[in-house]
Known about the structure:
It is a single chain. The chain has eight helices and twelve strands. By secondary structure, the protein is α/β, with parallel strands linked by helices. It folds into two domains: 50-119 and 223-255, Periplasmic binding protein-like II (D-Maltodextrin-Binding Protein, domain 2, 3-Layer(aba) Sandwich), CATH 3.40.190; 122-219, D-Maltodextrin-Binding Protein, domain 2. Strands 4-3-5-12-6 form a five-stranded mixed β-sheet, sandwiched between helices. Strands 9-8-10-7-11 form a five-stranded mixed β-sheet, sandwiched between helices. A two-stranded antiparallel sheet has the order 1-2. Strand 1 (6-9) and strand 2 (12-15) form a beta hairpin.
Amino acid sequence: MAVDLFTRKDGILIPTSEARYLLSEVGRVFDSLHHLEELNRDLTERTAGHLRIACLPGFATALLPKLLAGFLEHRPGVRLTLEPDRPERILEWIIGEQYDCGITDEFATHPAVESMDVPIRTVCVLPEGDPLANRDAVTPLDLADRKLIHTRRDSPFFRKLLRAFSETGVEMNSWIEVRQFSTACIVVSQGQGATVVSALDAEQYRGQGIAIVPFEPEINHRLSILRPVSGSRSLLALDFLEAFAESLKPFRAEPAEAETQSI
């Protein structure tokens, strides 16, 4: 049965209560359409959305906070999840498409993950005022009598470092084994030992009681940026990855062409 929307009185059409109710609902529909139009524009312009990043713990406290603050400044509608954890856990999250991207190191390969590798320069970190601090470069021979803080022995980077010492004919004086480069830098900043780490990590502690000197022979730390193969390509995530790649330029060991794969 049809609903009367108007009644006529003295030649004038008067809306019924049903008409007034329908009009209010139509208004809500138009408001919703307007909201969807604004949301679509914000998503297109990357000023709205949810960015989910998994990373190694060192990135969550050093490089990323400042970078993300600038990235989000003109994106008021963007929500951010930044989750630090160990490499194995980051890989699990990316495979499960729980995060848009992951920042880890020395990634091998996985059929559900696409990656981009960025080689990062390696430096020697010494206590401030150390006699070696004025050198153009520090070699394994220079570190023969130094107690070394280094990454865990099962890491690819440690094997590269151990090979550099072995090929120079110097026995590494292993002192402290750590998981993160940042931990090694903090120990050195207290005036103890020496370490060989990525230039990216060392830079976060410049001016905090350390000296940073190039290390020879050149051994690179391989930073890996991961994305799910089957995940949707978030424009917001791609914008972030572009900004992140730009922030790495001062620390690259080689030109951008050295990246193994573009994401």
